[in-house]
């Protein structure tokens, strides 16, 4: 009986170690296979009453951020996104926010209260985010100047941290 217990205990430990190794893999932590290198899905945008498309932004690095006013982590990361926008705006890059807010008043209040300084629009149907593979917000895609996804960030980030600014320096220096 003692031998079987020891074997069972070692089996459980091995299983837990395997689970830990799998969860530690970067692609699994992100919840899906990497999207890096895939063409960014094009979609219609309407910013300040001006219709357009994501593809109209080719030639710029786009930080595509899905958010909502009712999302606590989205509120938490808004100041850092504002700082990042100031950092990016002179470097042929921008943040494009896509809000899941159904209530236009809550959306407008968020923009005002947070001092959002980057282009953003509402997609209350959540279709764009779901087409991208975004079931939970905040979720952010970095799209290169040619319209390909470089990276996907899950959950709130400290967008103005030295590490994040160094990341943007590295991709903005590429032609």
Structure keywords:
175 residues, alpha/beta, Glutaredoxin, 2 domains, 5-stranded mixed beta sheet, two-stranded antiparallel sheet, 6 helices, 7 strands, 41% helix, elongated
Report the span from N to C terminus.
67 Å
- Poorly predicted runs are 25-32
Order of helices and strands: HHEEEHEHEHEEH
CATH 4th-level superfamily of the largest domain: Glutaredoxin
Number of helices: 6
Instruction: Report the portion of residues in β strands.
Output: 15-25%
Tally of domains: 2
Please state the second-level CATH architecture of the largest domain.
3-Layer(aba) Sandwich
Biggest β-sheet, characterized?
5 strands, mixed
CATH hierarchy class name of the largest domain: Alpha Beta
- Coarse structural class: alpha/beta
Radius of gyration: 20 Å
Shape: elongated
Mean pLDDT: 88
Overall strand count? 7
- Give helix % range: 40-55%
Widest β-sheet, arrangement of strands: 5-4-3-6-7
Q: What is CATH's topology name of the largest domain?
A: Glutaredoxin
Q: Could you explain the architecture of this structure?
A:
By secondary structure, this protein is of the alpha/beta class. The chain has two domains: 1-31; 33-172, Glutaredoxin (3-Layer(aba) Sandwich), CATH 3.40.30. Helix content is 41%, strand content 21%. It is built from six helices and seven strands; from the N terminus they run ααβββαβαβαββα. It has helices at residues 2-24, 26-29, 72-88, 104-114, 127-132, 162-172, and strands spanning 44-47, 50-53, 61-67, 93-99, 120-122, 139-143, 149-154. It has a five-stranded mixed sheet with strand order 5-4-3-6-7, with helices on one face. Strands 1-2 form a two-stranded antiparallel ribbon. The model is unreliable at 25-32 (pLDDT under 50).
